[in-house]
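Q: Could you fold this chain for me?
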Amino acid sequence: MKKIYTTPEYITWQRRRLEKIERKRIKKKRTRYKNIHKENEDKGYEDSIKPAVVAPPDFRLIENTEGCLLFFRQIRSTEYLNHYRNYRFVKISLTNVKDIDYGAISILTAISYDLSYKKILLHGNFPKDQAAKVMIAEIKNFKPMNLEKVILIDLDDLEELGLKVGD
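A: Sure. Below is the predicted structure, expressed as structure tokens.
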């Protein structure tokens, strides 16, 4: 059987205990309310989507050094850095590339690893030219660019060329 305390000291103790619980409950409500409206606070930047950095058609480091270096400089600049919610990313477009060499691909890979270290994503696409597409697809370490998510590519074309898809 439960004991009921009716003496004045127990009544005051119980009243203080209930007041304390009520204060905690109100404080918890306030913090929830603040968290709901936290999205409206200034994040230091606005969500912005900027245009993609376009690679030159002759994307060979030895023959077109200035064009390649300008492209690499634009990738690293904050002018093309996009903000969307908590994500920072740079969009690149390789669709116009007709000629490409391994030097340009290796530098692009190094830049993509550097950006991923800084928690900046690099989104891009494959070239329309079949030979350039095959040269990029042959390199297995070219994964940090999220190419599968952004590009609609004919997987049958790659399988016809003898490349394994999905490795």
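A (continued): Confidence is low (pLDDT under 50) at residues 146-153.
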